[in-house]
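> example.struct
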């Protein structure tokens, strides 16, 4: 087992080596017949007060998009999975967003339009219909909101422990991610209540996570039906489904999973008048049964969080994606897209 400092040093050397012009040209040639899919969630203003792994500052996102525009054949998801490519001189690239945050409309869309980059937004329909926040975002807000250096959550659930929110930002992220993973071990229908209890325990005002029209609009707010209609008429944007409930589908019964998959498709088709053909598994969790349910619901493709490129001929219901979080600097993204470097994908359920 490598010591963390040695691991960090090796990572830094690999990132630096893969950022040289020669390495970039070589990997571009080597990967020219492959397609990379990048998985983003939310994009925030640079001075946003709340932080989460899933929120990228807009200046960082813009630098990613400029790099993508100049070095990749940026494709819509439909072109990517049907392998309709006209430019094989560069590797293909698809920009994807999970969950359906309003910030995709306010902040990401103007950048994508300016650079003429296509993208797909996978939407969780229950959050849109009920104007609800994800339980995981309530946790990110609570962790940022609290001034407590240590939070003891053993009384909230036996699955939870003590979390230290003191120290450098990387430690803070590690501890919040550990808390999120612990909550994922509790029953799906209990997670939001647990997240609210955590918020109350750290002294946060309930106004931040109230359901319906009563919640205070913030960076984690979902898209509205009106924004979804506008996105549906934008030629650069494809809308996809991300289930109705956003529970981890492999933890549900077959009937519940089937209903969540189908409902999200039906609701989005009614809302937009368009056919919804692409799906994203919440948290990237999939198995053979879910692949079948997604195919039977009428989707053409489904994406995961398995890191790696998509190759023509791959299974369309287990499409790989590289997860991109707020720790993904431009240098790290360049290294990631050479295909020789991997970072752990982190999703949220
Ligand atoms: Zn999600």
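> example.seq
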């Amino acid at each position: 087992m490598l010591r963390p400092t040695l691991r960090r040093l090796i990572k830094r050397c690999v990132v630096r080596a893969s950022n040289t012009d020669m390495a970039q040209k070589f990997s571009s040639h080597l990967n020219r017949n492959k397609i990379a899919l990048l998985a983003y969630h939310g994009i925030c203003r640079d001075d946003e007060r709340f932080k989460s792994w899933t929120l990228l500052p807009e200046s960082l996102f813009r630098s990613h998009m400029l790099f993508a525009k100049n070095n990749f054949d940026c494709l819509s998801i439909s072109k990517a999975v049907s392998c309709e490519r006209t430019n094989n001189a560069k590797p293909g690239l698809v920009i994807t967003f999970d969950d359906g945050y309003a910030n995709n409309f306010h902040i990401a869309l103007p950048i994508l339009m300016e650079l003429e980059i296509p993208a797909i937004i996978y939407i969780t329909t229950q959050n849109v219909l009920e104007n609800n926040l994800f339980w995981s975002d309530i946790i990110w807000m609570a962790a940022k909101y609290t001034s407590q250096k240590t939070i003891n959550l053993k009384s909230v659930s036996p699955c939870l422990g003590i979390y230290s929110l003191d120290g450098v930002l990387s430690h803070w992220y590690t501890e919040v991610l550990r808390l999120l993973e612990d909550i994922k071990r509790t029953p799906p229908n209990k997670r939001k209540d647990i997240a609210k209890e955590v918020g109350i325990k750290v002294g946060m005002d309930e106004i931040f996570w109230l359901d319906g029209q009563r919640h205070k609009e913030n960076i984690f707010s979902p898209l509205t039906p009106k924004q979804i209609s506008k996105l549906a008429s934008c030629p650069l944007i494809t809308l996809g489904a991300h289930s109705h409930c956003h529970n981890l589908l492999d933890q549900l019964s077959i009937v519940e999973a089937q209903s969540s998959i189908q409902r999200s498709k039906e609701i989005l088709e009614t809302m937009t008048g368009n056919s919804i053909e692409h799906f994203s598994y919440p948290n990237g969790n999939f198995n053979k049964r879910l692949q079948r349910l997604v195919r039977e619901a009428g989707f053409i493709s489904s994406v995961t969080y398995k890191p790696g490129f998509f190759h023509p001929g791959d299974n369309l219901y287990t499409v790989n994606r590289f997860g991109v979080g707020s720790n993904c600097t431009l240098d790290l993204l360049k290294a990631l897209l050479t295909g020789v470097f991997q970072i752990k994908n982190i999703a949220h359920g």
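> remarks
The chain has a mean pLDDT of 89.
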